[in-house]
Automatic annotation (TrEMBL):
InterPro entries: Na+/solute_symporter_sf (IPR038770). It comes from the Eukaryota. The keyword Zinc does not apply. This is Uncharacterized protein. It comes from Dibothriocephalus latus (Fish tapeworm). Keywords: Membrane, Transmembrane, Transmembrane helix. The chain crosses the membrane at residues 16-35, 47-67, 79-100, 107-134, 146-166.
Length: 201
């Protein structure tokens, strides 16, 4: 509900506000785990547990949250079956990776070496080539209200995550992991989910 209050307080356009809301609800932990992995003073195992736990909780809570708040506050219809299906796919792939690493570590290393790395290389090339083309249009839609909402959302999420970590006495490395986890959002995941789950106008 924090981001909903920020969206309305900053007077963000309804469509952009809905996109920001969905991006903050659908986390799945991947981007936050990368940020934590690059951090020097962070509990990596705790960050990995948070990433997997978020994926499971996302499957249970994100469709309900996006459907209820999206329909009633933003008046945005959404194809809930597609949202649940895409969230389930992410959870199943993460569980498959965990089980493969647990049962057959050599097979998990082979998958990372021969499948994941080439796909990541292709995705990186695609991101760079298409990103330059796409981003020239993105900057036309940036406005002060949206920037204020984004900065406020990330800052308050990090501060609240750190405060919760201190209240639970997690220690500095885990506080940093938790705060990063709740303040880093999945734009790469929410954009395709929005494109597939929200009916075209």
């Amino acid at each position: 509900m924090l981001v909903v209050g920020i969206i309305f307080a900053c007077n963000v356009d309804e469509d952009m506000g809905y996109g920001l809301f969905v991006s903050t609800v659908i986390q799945c932990g991947g981007a936050a785990y990368i940020v934590n992995a690059l951090s020097a003073d962070c509990d990596q195992q705790f960050a990995a547990v948070l990433a997997h736990a978020t994926a499971v909780f996302n499957l249970l809570l994100a469709p309900l949250w996006v459907y209820s708040v999206g329909v009633y506050l933003f008046a945005q219809p959404i194809l809930i079956e597609r949202l649940i299906g895409l969230s389930s796919l992410i959870v199943l792939l993460q569980l498959f990776g965990v089980l493969l690493r647990w049962k057959k570590p050599s097979a998990a290393i082979a998958v990372l070496t021969w499948l994941s790395q080439p796909l990541l290389l292709l995705a990186g090339i695609l991101l760079i080539t298409l990103g330059v083309y796409i981003n020239q249009y993105v900057f036309q839609y940036i406005n002060k209200q949206l920037v204020a909402a984004l900065v406020t959302t990330v800052t308050l999420a990090y501060a609240l995550g750190w405060a919760v970590g201190l209240a639970l006495r997690l220690g500095t490395p885990r506080c940093r992991a938790f705060a990063s986890h709740v303040s880093v959002f999945q734009g790469f995941l929410s954009i395709p989910i929005l494109r597939m789950s929200v009916p075209s106008p």
